[in-house]
Design goal:
One of its GO terms (cellular component) is membrane. It is built from 24 helices and no strands. By secondary structure, the protein is mainly α. The chain is globular and about 70 Å long.
Length: 470
């Protein structure tokens, strides 16, 4: 059975509102970073009559970059607080309503000259909106898709993220001038408006309709739309599956009287309290999913993808024009590569793709570090190593890590698991952003060691989703 138009529309719109915006947000300062620094300096001269101190500019630039993970954490906390209160659909709509004025503010930055703080404020609220979108995206799509379709509808997250990165690089090359760089914000603004229209037309998650609204009729309508089912008996069977998963805890408490069952926080972080077999299985699945995300962070791919122009130009010693076009070419190649997991993931399996891509990325990262240590004479090694890291993670761990944790836990715990995983990633990204910009006096190899962080071995793999095991 193919994807229903509703599920297809929801998954694509959610990915564009989440992954596309995240990739665009992370990379938007990559190409025009010299022009934006010049704008900040000109604003300082207009206000104070003298240029900004280079060290002060480095520190300010680090804060502007670090604003993204900070605002992302704020958005993720907001999503965690409101997702169960107002629903998945309205949470996604809220993210769009925050992003639209933020993007307009960023786009009008030059009109606010000499107040460059407009860019900082707009970037903060845009990051907040994206933090909300990233959390609710996986929760809404996984809760709405059937078990057999979850891997497929989530596997194109990396593709859409690559599209966002590609458009950032493309428009960055074309608009990296002192007058045109604010127009780079028109693309995410358009995407946000379109996503908002799609979300308004979508149904609420069937899981949410049953767990929080206790509305079987609403859930049935959503299942009919998202699963593409026609027969009432098939819809009733799906409703029973949702109830068995989402309301298992409630039924257990009623059957066991006053016996307290462990909550999500206890299952995740207090194994001495949640020591029953079911909690142990859920905890294992949740932490394996989180560790896969952590392993992806330690490949360095996310930060390298966002600042590969900086790596080519400042660390690899390539010319600025080559660095810009090289970043664009790198992203163009990654786009078709990121399509491959969509068609092979169910045949090859998660574990082989994770292990192979992690192993190759470790070798490529080592090659890049050595090339940076050697210097300009090994700039082809820097170019090759960075490219391999980005290519191989798009084929494997970069794609799978986006949805793996959601496959290993019951639907009722997806929100908590995704929240914990993304919070950790945001804290790690904040550390990397701040460190990268605050080591201007270090040697180039030292900068890259901090910049790329360190690599870690791949965690073990659970053979089946916990929904099946439980």
């Amino acid at each position: 059975m193919g994807l229903s138009p509703y599920l297809l529309s929801l998954s694509i719109a959610a990915c564009f509102n989440g992954n596309f915006q995240q990739a665009y947000l992370l990379s938007i300062l990559n190409q025009p970073y010299l022009e934006i620094q010049q704008f900040i300096n000109e604003s300082t001269i207009a206000r104070s009559g003298k240029s900004i101190d280079p060290l002060a500019l480095d520190f300010l630039w680090s804060l502007i970059n670090a604003m993204n993970p900070i605002s992302g954490i704020v958005g993720q906390m907001i999503a965690y607080l409101i997702c169960d209160r107002i629903g998945r659909r309205w949470t996604a709509i809220t993210s769009c309503l925050i992003a639209i004025p933020a993007l307009l503010l960023s786009m009008l930055t030059r009109l606010s000259f000499p107040y460059y703080e407009t860019l900082v404020i707009g970037r903060f609220f845009w990051g907040t909106a994206n933090g909300i979108a990233i959390v609710v995206q996986t929760v809404w799509v996984v809760e709405s898709a059937s078990t057999t379709q979850r891997g497929f509808v989530n596997s194109w997250q990396e593709v859409i993220a690559t599209v966002g990165n590609l458009l950032t690089q493309l428009f960055g090359v074309l608009l990296s001038t002192s007058d045109l760089w604010p127009f780079m914000f028109t693309v995410p603004l358009t995407v946000t408006v379109v996503s908002l229209v799609v979300f308004i037309r979508m149904h609420e998650s069937p899981q949410y309709a049953l767990m929080f609204r206790h509305n079987r009729q609403e859930a049935a309508v959503a299942i009919r739309a998202y699963h593409g089912l026609k027969k009432d008996i098939e819809i009733d069977e799906e409703i029973i599956k949702y109830e068995e998963d989402g309301q298992r805890k409630e039924k257990q408490e009623k059957g066991m009287g006053k016996t307290m069952q462990p909550n999500g926080l206890e299952i995740m972080f207090m194994p001495w309290k949640a020591n029953d077999p079911l909690s142990a299985i859920i905890r294992l699945g949740a932490w394996i999913g989180i560790m896969v995300k952590i392993a992806y962070v330690f490949t360095g791919a996310r930060v390298i993808r966002s600042f590969n122009t900086f790596i080519y130009y400042d660390l690899g010693r390539w010319q600025k024009t080559f660095s810009q076009w090289g970043s664009l070419a790198n992203t163009v190649i990654r786009l078709p590569l990121s399509l491959i997991p969509i068609f092979i993931i169910e045949r090859v399996g998660r574990r082989p793709m994770l292990i192979i891509s992690e192993f190759v990325s470790i070798l490529a990262l080592s090659m890049t570090i050595v090339s940076v240590v050697v210097g300009k004479a090994a700039k082809f090694g820097t170019l090759t190593g960075v490219s391999i890291i980005l290519f191989v993670t798009s084929l494997g761990i970069g794609s799978i890590s986006r949805f793996y944790s959601a496959e290993l836990v019951p639907k009722s715990m997806i929100l908590r698991t995704i929240f914990y995983a993304i919070i950790y990633l945001s804290l790690e990204n904040f550390s990397l952003e701040l460190k990268k910009e605050q080591v201007p006096d270090w040697t180039v190899p030292d900068q890259f060691f901090v910049f790329s962080n360190r690599v870690r071995p791949l965690p073990p793999h659970a053979p089946e989703p916990v929904d099946v095991v439980a």
